[in-house]
Amino acid sequence: MVEAFFSRGWCVLPFDARVKTWGEAAWRAGREAMQAPSMRQWWVCENTWFVGVDALPNDETGSINNVPFGGAPVTAIKALYGSWPDLHKAQLSVVSPGYPRPREDESEAAFGYRLRRDAAHVDGLKRGPNGERFLEEPHAWIMGLPLTANEPDQGPLVVWDGSHEIMRNAFAAALGDVPPEKWSVTDIRQPYQQARRAVFEQCQRICVQAKPGETILVHRLLLHGVGPWADTYESAQEHRAIAYFRPELNSVGNDWLKLR
């Protein structure tokens, strides 16, 4: 698993009953969060995508409504990175039939990128007022926990296999001579865009399939996005839901640029 993850930049961990039980509790809480007035801001793309940042009421151990978090995800992260951090409140990503629709104030070009390229991105980069890109949140890793079935035509998580290496090389060239404390104000838009184009040419696009009880691990530098909910897809499900943990590094240093 370790070698496969660092080689490809992502993996799906096998089913774990403890993860499934946690996911059931998380989805109960998630459905409440989706309807809460305080969370209304997170319904975007004409109500076809709920991007609920910090939407789930878990504690720092991951426990949610007295259901503990543990098992395969914790074991895997310790094997990959050596330790398990305190957790933030999980993000809840929910896609509905009709996605993608234009996001509020989204330009025609940006919506075209969402349609053609699944809004592919590296997490943690902030867009500046003139299109600049800055490192705002240096994540340690990304963990997705399916709360519903994830099918290829049902708004899936999309990854570009092995793209973390291309993105890493581009960011290292752009930031290698810049003190880490200045990374958050250093514009990396040009190398970022060039690296994405290289990824689209060289890396395979994969729709990740996983079910409740399985765990999706994604390298922090992997290019990924959200695929469309196909018009022809028929399902009894009203939503595709994934909970995400994305803890930040304690200090940026050069750790963010490491492949391992």
UniProtKB/TrEMBL annotation:
It comes from the Bacteria. SUPFAM superfamilies: Clavaminate synthase-like. This is Phytanoyl-CoA dioxygenase PhyH. The lineage of its organism: Bacteria, Pseudomonadati, Pseudomonadota, Alphaproteobacteria, Rhodobacterales.
